[in-house]
Specification:
The chain is of the alpha+beta class. The protein has 2 domains: 2-21 and 35-173, no CATH class; 204-306, no CATH class. It has 11 helices and 12 strands. α1 (2-14) runs antiparallel to α3 and α3 (47-68) runs parallel beside α11 (298-306). Mean pLDDT is 82; it is low at 1-20.
């Protein structure tokens, strides 16, 4: 659906690579399957984030503007997306969200369907495509919104998109604030930093395939994965964590990664900047948690992205 492609496209480029305080475990329901948060405002205003933002603006936002006429850099400050088992997928875009941008989104929505205007607690929202009455029917993946869902502009400075009506009503009632459950025993962990640029995490159950190779075996024994990119005095601090469910697996994976780092550290064919990145990479294992972290010049990341 054209008007949703704007959000899908933006999220796709932000996640693989977000201060206000970012997001924490308290911001998500205990049944959250995956989450992603990108802070474009922080990117624009921080030394390291600015270089990433310039790349996004040139490679992604310009194309979005040419396709749908919406200036992402002008309209959007933060994006949060997640899905949980009980209420499906959610996307919340924060920013100035001008009337012109809202009108264009609504116009795009009418190209393939006729949105049904509804209201809850005095706030309006639209239903589009297939009617979803439960998370099971709506699905927990972001692409489930291509078949149908709900969107609203009635919370100030926010666009809210959900796959279930229940979730839309709850978010309209709370003013777009997600009701989290950090105390849930199996809640997803969320990596945080003072100047977060990107945060993302997921449960890895659905990523496992039937192959017997070593990477599939790692996924099969991994419960959760999380990623954080933050501004660290002009450099990009990158951290990834895995929580595994089999004793000794974290140590084994850590040993493999350390071995690969050691081998590449003496590879004279590598670019000096890549060698520096490899040598700055640290691997830490604590109980069932494996952490991989590094600090890198943002110009190097942009150069890699350009390649």
């Amino acid at each position: 659906m054209p008007f949703l492609r704007l959000f899908f496209f933006l999220l796709l480029f932000c996640v693989p690579l977000t201060a206000h305080s970012g997001v924490t475990a308290a911001d998500f329901p205990g049944t959250t399957i995956w989450y992603a948060h990108a802070d474009l405002e922080q990117m624009r205003s921080s030394p390291a984030g600015e270089k990433l933002y310039d790349w996004l603006n040139g490679e992604v936002f310009t194309e979005i503007y040419e396709e749908v006429g919406i200036d992402v850099g002008k309209e959007m400050d933060r994006i949060t997306a997640f899905a949980d088992l009980e209420r499906g997928a959610v996307l919340i875009v924060e920013g100035l969200i001008s009337k012109e941008a809202r009108d264009k989104v609504l116009a795009l929505a009418t190209i393939t369907t006729t949105p049904d205007l509804r209201s809850s607690g005095g706030k309006n929202y639209y239903q589009f495509g297939d009617e979803n009455d439960s998370a099971a029917s709506a699905g927990n993946h972001f692409d489930s919104l291509e078949d149908g869902g709900y969107f609203s502009f009635d919370v100030k400075h926010k666009v809210i998109v959900t796959s279930t009506e229940d979730q839309m009503k709850a978010l309209l009632k709370s003013g777009g604030k997600i009701t989290g459950m950090a105390s849930h025993p199996n809640a997803l962990f969320v990596l945080t930093a003072d100047r977060s640029l990107v945060q993302a995490g997921l449960r890895t159950d659905e990523l496992v395939d039937d192959d017997d190779d070593w990477d599939s075996n790692i996924l099969r024994n991994t419960e959760q994965a999380a990623l954080l990119i933050a501004d660290d005095d002009g450099l990009l601090a990158i951290e990834a964590q895995l929580v595994v469910n089999e004793p000794g697996m974290a140590e084994s994976i850590g040993g493999i990664i350390n071995g690969l780092i050691s081998l590449q550290a003496f590879n004279s064919d590598l670019d000096p900047e890549i060698l520096s990145l490899i040598k700055n990479t640290k691997v830490d294992v604590k109980d069932s948690t494996l952490s991989i972290s590094t600090v890198v010049d943002p110009a190097l990341i942009v150069a890699i992205l350009d390649d």
